[in-house]
Structures are given as structure tokens and as C-alpha cells.
Please model this.
Amino acid sequence: MKIGIALGGGGVRGFAHLGVLKALEEKGIRPDLISGVSAGAIIGAFVASGYTYEKTLKILKNKSLMAYSKLHYPKYGLFGLDGLKEDIQKHIKIKKIENLQIPLFVTVSNLNDGRVEYVKEGDLSTYLLASASIPVLFAPVLIDGKMYSDGGLFDNLPISPLLQKCDVIIAVNVSPVHKIEKFDNLVQVASRTFQLGVHSNSIRHKERCSLFIEPTGLREYEILNGNHAQEIFELGYNYTKSLEIAPFE
Model:
């Protein structure tokens, strides 16, 4: 029986993916295929390259997308994410997506053609950078003459690549909508606008999954604040550990 796991986008809430995956493994459930977008794609890449959940947490802990960003002349985006690409290349020695230990699909948005792409081959760090580049906030990535950005623009819970390939599909949503009393800056407004836009395309996949996991409590954490990685990891772990999951047959 082949198990596929889709890891949704959600900024630093993506640390919950590590806790969820750890708890699932303790229940005897490990992915044969991983599909990820934005933070989910980054977490998926570390896991698919052989890193343990704890080691991945240690590497990325206390780092948000903003920690990797640099303000630059905003021709295409307010910030650049070159620091993220450098960190991925430093820790993941496998350069090509197709060479990972577990098959991985990286979800990106092709801005030129106006469509989503689920990439299973190509330069790993480049496509991960594109998948995490929230439009306007972060500059898109130029690949083969076309601009690519956060795949959540079209699909923030990418189960599509797993359909027809897996007997069991588990989806992990880490981007529930929360209330915000006030906004302090343009960055918060931009990230909030994107989050609201992608919310509906996450929920529509719920009925197509064998198991839909959305850890409670994630609403309390801002998607760009990287100071609570350990808490978010434990939240994902404890929530999933408490679930009574029937054996897949």
C-alpha cells in the first residue's frame, strides 16, 4: 500500500509538519511520496533527503522567511530570499529533486502562464525558493525564462500529484485563518492578503483525502514570526499523537 502525504503552506506554522510526521511515524505511517508547497515543500525536502524530524527542526529553528530576506529595490517584490537558497544548499547535498530518497513534488506558480506546476525534476534549491516566494512580498524566481512564485497561489494543499499514484492520501493543513486585531506594517498586510486568498483552495481538498490533519492552536501563531518553532513542532506532534487513526486497508 502506497502512502502519499501533502504538506500545505503556512510560513513558520510549517514546523507543525515535522511534529505531525513524527507522530505518524510512531503510529507506523511513513510516506512513500511527499507533495509540498512553500513551507511544506521545504520541510518535505529535508525529510525526503534523509534528515530526521528533530535534526530538521534544529537546522531551521528560530528562522522565519523574513530571517532569510533582504530588502532590495522592489521591482518584482519587496524582499529577496537568496539566504534561503544558500541555507538549503548548505544542508541538503542532493541537488536534484529526482535524486531524493523519497519522491517529492514541489508546487510552484507559473506567473507567466497563469497555472500551477507540480515539479518532480530539476534543481531542488531553486524550485524550493520559488515555492516559498509569496507574491509581492518576495521576488519571484526566474526559471527557464519564466517567473515562478509561491505555489499556494493556486494550490496550498497539493494532493493532486498524489492522486492515482497512492492508495492513501494524508493532507496536513497548517494555514487556518485567524483573526488579527491590527496591522503594524506593509509586510503583515501583504502576508495576510495572501493567506486569505489561499485559504479556500486548501479546504476544497478535504473530502478527497483519506485523512485530513489540521492541528488545533495554529491560529495563535503568525505565519512570519519564527520565534515559536519548538512550540509549533510540539503542537503538531501532540495533536497527531492524540488522534485515533484506523489502520489503512
About this structure: The chain has eight helices and eleven strands. The first strand starts at residue 3 and ends at 7.
